[in-house]
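Bench notes, afternoon.
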Amino acid sequence: METKNNRNSPLTKALVLIALVLAAALIVVTLLSLPSLLEEPPAPTQPPTEAPTEPPTEPEPTLPPPEENPFDYLDFQYEGRYLKLREGNSVTGIDVSHWQKLIDWEQVKESGVDFAMIRLGYRGYEQGGLNIDTYATANLDGAIAAGLDVGVYFFSQAITPEEAEEEAYFVLEHLEPYKEFITMPVVFDWEHVSSENARTANMRDPDILTKCTLAFLQTIEFSGYRTMVYFNRTQSWKYLNLEELKDYEFWLAAYTQRMDFPYKIQMWQYTNKGKVPGVTGDCDINIYFPDGPITPDT
């Protein structure tokens, strides 16, 4: 009897079809991975290189503060018209400008005033020009003739050290005829002007103002004069680096009878409402005590 061919059975056909499908899939996978197999292997990953560690930056050396003020309110008392240092040497002075007009310097001297600080000039607070005080010559001549010790100050509105140096040379030029009579300091007096039009209205950087002060004082000092910087409490706290200026004399404006400023000063403008014979109207009065208090060891 004749037998049936198994190659034509449904099961055989199914197995063949599955085998063909698997073979095709293997070929496809091989072809897809072939390019990556032909590429060079990537370079081994290097560990990240750390930036070199900078050595710690040394802080800028801090200048020590000015010398501590050795005085308190008990060290001063009035003797007649003027404030005096109780234990130690002090002298009384006034500072004047064109605002006081003509002054009878003989009367000033007779009232017990020992010295005068005279405004020699000023820089205009808007245009910035340099000007001589209109009463500077009369005040210098009158105070010297009356036998007072004399110093001068310049009202600065400098906004750069170069301008402050220009002001110093201006002062030196006009002081030349009086050089031998200037026995008190030459003073840098920089103040804010209460006007929005002032060229110094935005001048608030203590580093710049301190550099201006130094430029003026060093130029004056080089010419052989004693030097001093004038300031009020606000300026000393906010607009000046006093530790950089401590080699110069300090003149404080503080209208009180109590001495409570933390640093040593040499001159104190203790009132701007003083009444001095020979001066019309109010007048600034000062006490000067450059040697400090007398101690038991002196």
